Amino acid sequence: MHCFYPGDLYAFTRKPLFIVVDSDNSPVFANMPHYFGQPLVVLMSAQDIPPQFHDQHHRGNLFTLFLHSPLMGMCLVSSLCDVPMNLWEKCQTLVDRFISEASRLVTRGRNVDPSFLQFFGDDFLRLLTL
């Protein structure tokens, strides 16, 4: 009764729409229809998480952590809690380089869904996508 469903958003698909769904109910958004032919991107959290992270769910979802800081997400899933600042900065430089290269590949790719390219002009949405 208190869940959010794709049908609640159909009216908003008249314009390009970018949705981030971080919920146990995210799979219901997998086949959201394009009634109006506008670009639609739905980033969804995984339905299942590894058992060792079930007790940490109250601190937030892994999907949100990876969207916010991919490097911090990698440290968490690798059980790295204490990273020296100089190593963190080197790793962050690698992440930034990866994002730049991935952005270049996506914009030049032939098999990229045009919906993603529609949102690449927005810095925030491009960063979330990459």
TrEMBL record:
BP term (GO), one: DNA-templated transcription
Molecular function via GO: transcription corepressor activity
Coiled coil: none
Pfam families: SCAI
Top-rank taxon, per record: Eukaryota
Protein name: Protein SCAI
Native source organism of the sequence: Cherax quadricarinatus (Australian red claw crayfish)
